[in-house]
Amino acid sequence: MRFSSLARTTMASPFTVHRLHMRGRHRLVNCLNSVQRTFRRSAGTERGAVQTEGTLGEDSGEKDGPKSFYELMADRQEQAEKSVLISCQSRTSEKKFLNFLSKHGDIKKHFFYESYGVYAVVEFACRDNVVSLLESAAIPSVSHESMVPFKSRLLSLRNHSSGESPSLPCQPQTTVPINELIQRLSREESVDEQISSLTEAYQLREENSRLRFLVCSLLKDIAAAYFPECTIKPFGSSVNGFGKLGCDLDMFLDLDTISGKNLKTPKSGLSLEYQMKRTNSERHVTQSILSVIGECVDHFGPGCVGVQKILNARCPLVRFAHQPSGFQCDLTANNRVAMKSTELLYLYGELDPRVRSLVFTIRCWARTHGITSSIPGAWISNFSLTVMVLFFLQKRSPPIIPTLDCLRDLAGPADESVIEGNDCTFVTDFSKILLQSNTDTLEQLLTDFFEFYATFPFSRMSLNIRKGKEQNKPEVAPLHIQNPFETSLNVSKNVNSSQLDRFVALCQESAWLLQQSETRTPTGVGGKHTTKPWGLATLLLPSQVAGVKGRKKRKPHHASERIKSLLESLKSKNDGKKNSDS
Ligand code: GTP
Ligand code: MG
């Protein structure tokens, strides 16, 4: 079945539904419908008509499949170029604000959010509107400080008239706290619904995604002082479909249009070429460029603070915080393989809604138990963890997603890509991808994921998503995951054996918890103020087997004891709230 037909079949076809287990078949279809709708909305991958509320037998309304990665990037970059970021006072009238701005042109989209103050993202109909707006802006006059006279699309709104308005409606840009998430999940009626609820709570929203592209575009304006034709593109979880609200913003300074790598020189006649400074290595060029851009960002970049140049890393980068957006940013250059990995992950996430749901769930579970961390170290990275989920989905019978070799075989001439001698070719046209009819529920997949890795022969075998098979480890390392494109490398080289042991112990515990009758089904207790954690929610409670690094392993408590203690804490919180309310 082709992808576009799969989207319809998993979501709606009576034929597929007949093949589902009776128990929960309606739930699965509804759940997949809701997951798919949520993703398309947040990632902005939907083409044309928004889907209607889905029911069995209803057409999904999606005829053309998702946007390709390039289309998505181009659309988002275009929006960002026509947008400005404005710091506002919270008590500004939204109507007055929009009237004031619309003097410069039609406003296509706007939203407010909070990050060290209230900000507005405003997208105009065309770039000329932005030029007109910038021409009308004044240079701030301050008596005690001096200004770096660098003009950008980051502005401040000054309100010179008196009178207060209601607070501006702000879009949330952060995830719900874990205890709130546990309670929310406990109120769901099936594990599948819990998984979609978690995904919905954690994934990047449309607005957050726009803001990420806008920050890249603002940064491009700084880099353009040296390289007018450059672009800065987000990669990693900001765009691969697996980003969580609050994840870092990985950026790639793309100079390929300037370096002219793709231009052919004529074989006869006259031609001109630029004289350029030569250095002894590509790495040195990258380091020099990042060093200079890093200085610019540090000295001239409005809102950019804590700039660190980490130029001797395997992949040189400039790290800083962008205060107006609240993003932790990593700017790299010459990092095309990571861009390809991002595109591959995006493609896998678009093939079947269960891919993203499972990745979100496993990423959240891993983070809760300290399996992953935002600090670099011997932990499993989110990237490695995602590859582990993909590998598991390739190993299903029938497989849910194809192998990378299969995607390479489907590639056309336009998809060909060789980066630094590595074959990074794979198909980009979704309609060429054939998927097999697998009807596993998310609950089955989650349980089987934990069982799969609880018993995986990590000591001997390496994971290979190119082949969709484990293979003998080519080198000694506790965890070996073959890099999909630089195949001689191990993406989890940093992981030590104690971190791997913790992962395996947690998989064992989670598989066990999902099989216990007392935790696998919802049985609400405690009235309307408390809901007993069950299913996925229990997996997010503190673990007894691998909670804190270096902590002595304690004898596993019975699950009910852990749940009892959480209930007690929830109860006392609610009692406290009731008392303070009364
Ligand atoms: P977050 O933890 O949410 O930031 O996930 P992420 O996917 O953005 O991970 P990270 O910021 O560490 O890396 C950004 C991107 O770089 C990843 O999505 C990959 O595309 C790529 N990447 C990271 N680590 C590796 C690696 O070890 N090998 C390869 N080939 N690519 C990597
Ligand atoms: Mg990242």
UniProtKB/TrEMBL annotation:
Basic and acidic residues biased stretches: 558-582
Lineage: Eukaryota, Metazoa, Chordata, Craniata, Vertebrata
GO biological process: RNA 3'-end processing
Taxonomic superkingdom: Eukaryota
InterPro entries linked: MTPAP-like_central, NT_sf, RL
Chain segments carrying region Disordered: 42-63, 545-582
GO cellular component, one term: mitochondrion
An MF annotation (GO) of this entry: poly(A) RNA polymerase activity
Protein name: Mitochondrial poly(A) polymerase
Pfam families documented for this protein: MTPAP-like_central, RL
Domain Poly(A) RNA polymerase mitochondrial-like central palm: 192-349
Native species: Fundulus heteroclitus (Killifish)
Domain RL: 68-137
Coiled coil: none
